[in-house]
Amino acid sequence: MKKLLVDLTSGEKIKVKVKDVVIGGKEKVFISGPCAIEDYETMRKIGRELKGIGVHMLRGGAFKPRTSPYDFQGLKENGLEIIKEVSKEFNIPFVTEIMDTRDVEKAIDYIDMIQIGSRNMYNYSLLKEVGKTNIPILLKRGMSATLSEWLYAAEYIMAEGNMNVVLCERGIRTFENYTRNTLDLNSVAVIKEKYRLPVIVDPSHGTGLREIVPQMSMASIATGADGLIIESHISPDNSVSDARETVSIKTVKAIIDKTLLLEKLI
Ligand code: PEP
Ligand code: MN
Predict the structure, then answer these.
(1) Closest Cα to atom 6, ligand 1: which residue?
(2) Digit-coded pLDDT (tens) for 112-146
(3) What are the transmembrane regions (predicted)?
């Protein structure tokens, strides 16, 4: 029989610490922020408001994996500096995507949690490279990855020694095209039932439609997700990218409040 590199099914549940935030523990973790880091002032306002409503971590892309090469590609290093500054000012850790193995080294002293985006879940060189660090990793599901391919991707990271992996369900491509993706909550139920890794849900990319982000957030919590990552903005319609799925800060607050109520029932 094949020797397992990492045993993901037996043993204690894995908890991942990002500074003082524990993902996979008792408390549901809320991560929010814009799709892309746009400029310092906007990021600062978003960061201040999100901290004020009890969000645990900020998100925001500096290196943006856009489907079209003509779309905004992110502020790159300048974006990292902006989110780092805001995170420091409001004492709130952040997660941001790294797309290139050459950027991993500089992330080590800089980034609280590295996101591996859906398009890079199959990038085994990148998975191995982040596996050699101790930085917590948010591993998004490939948009056409089966659950086992996704778990193997996690094993690629963990086999290099980095056990700080959090899975993120962000929807898969199906024949349905009314929504941007089909949010596969079956995966969350299976992971919570059978595997040791924490899993959070991204209802923003999972739906592509801001009006159903709250509902799918609640469904995710009811399924047992350890937290949510939600795209938000002080002016959602003016978001530079993914405006259609971006919610207001007020909506994030309503999702947090409802989660607290829902948790009492499950
Ligand atoms: C993102 O979260 O910024 C993103 C690009 O999402 P995904 O990789 O899931 O498409
Ligand atoms: Mn986005």
Answers:
(1) 117
(2) 999 999 999 999 999 999 999 999 999 999 999 99
(3) none
